[in-house]
Amino acid sequence: MSQQDRNRDEADAPWGRDEMPCVYCGRLIPRTSERCPECRTSYSLAVRRASREIEGAWFYLEPRNPSNRGVDFSTMLKLIEKGRLKADSVVRGPTTHQDWMYAAETPLLSKHLGVCPHCFAPAGPQDVYCSTCRRSLDERPARLAPGAGGPAAPSRFPDRDGLEEQLASSLATHDMAAAAASAASVASGPGSGYVDAVADSGVVEPAARPSRRPAQRPLRAKPHVVALLTVFTVLPLFILITYLPLEYVMGDPTYPGSMAYNFRENRLAIVAYYPWTSSSAEADAGGPSEAALSQQAAAERAGAEGRYDEAVRLYTELAAGHSDATPFGSEVRRKLAEAERFLEQQRQERDTVLATLAEASRALDASDAARARALMDRLTPRELEVARAAGVDLPALRDRIAAAAQSADAKGRQEQMRAEAQKLVGDAALREAEGDLKAALAILETLRNTYPAEFLPQGYQLEQRIASLTDRIAKASQPKQTTPPPETTKQKADRLWAEAEKLYDQSKYDDAIKQLEEIKKLPQDDWPQDLDKRIDYLKRLKWFGR
Length: 546
Known about the structure:
The chain has 21 helices and five strands. Helix content is 56%, strand content 3%. Helix 16 (394-433) packs antiparallel against helix 17 and helix 17 runs antiparallel to helix 18 (462-477).
């Protein structure tokens, strides 16, 4: 079955369908997706490039993406600074031997969280040994500080530390144990494999009983046989690989990193190293001309400087004048394909940057300075260089953003002062309704001394309110003229009785009798006791007093 038939048979395989694994979480997603619907990670060029720039051997467990790729240690420190990585976060890395552990128990990382990974005492990022337990903060099993006789404080998990020490000890003798196991596996026969295994393991084997059978003579390869086999196998294969472009069977040879690309690079290197492998046409012509080589060098310089449009133009001219059958023509077409791919990437990057700047400009037109500034801060130095190369006036755009931000801040302060002034007006009205006129007046005076008139509610007469409250407070401070309550009949009877007693003491019996007669005009319930007797008594005194 040919390779093409096998490829047709594999068309129904998973990798031939319209789904692919997400490069971040591994879940199957449509190949046309711009963002994974599971882990919500973008497939844009900037995100892909940023994820590769920080990849490393440290992992932190995320519920949203358990199969998250590893990052470098500096990224772990940034996660700690942002508060995303805490003491109870689950991580693994080189210092945990890729075992999942809490971040507070992870050597080299826990001290950046402020704790020792062994005894959990306070520790700092610059510390090498714990000041409490004297153990190393950067490894497990931990070494003691120089000069320390023993740990100053016990470990929180001594069983785990003992297991780590046993693992370290067993791993140190792993090679010897593997060699011994290999020797034991071939101990059934005294052949050369057994001897080599015992020799490599360093184990001294006790003397065995010598065999009575004569030792077999080792087979020796005949030189002429080796030469013939080499000529009839290696040489045809070498010629086949050199002359036939087999890389197209393996895939796209213009994609860097693929098997077809690497195979083509090796084939062209062989062709360039052995001049006799070149085609007869180019060999007869003496190879490419000096002008072609000079133009190739100019194209390579243009590509190295990022001027891929110039490189594509030069490579296109070279490809038109040289056949693909020649090594030089094949090399030119390969570099032309690379330059075209890089030019397309450059154009896509430029379009992305220009789209971001256009969105920032639209945000400025909509008075959204915060979004415009966020879009500008998102651009990397490389993308800023792309924008400058595209003719964008970045200083002018930054000045516009700064002016818009300053205007937005001023407008925000004005809105804040207007809201504060309206709140003070409401507080003054509330105090006035509660009868606390002095507090209301103090609030209005603060309002007059602090806030301009344009921040007051429309139509609000502040000075009139202050004058009105001042008059009301002044009137309230004046003493009130109180009128006595009306006299009751009982009180009047008591008053007339007391006046009659005073007149009696002054021997003014007629006047006293008149006062008592006035009492009799009042309701009888209010009369003093023995009123009539008192009147008769005064009348007799009056008669005898004549």
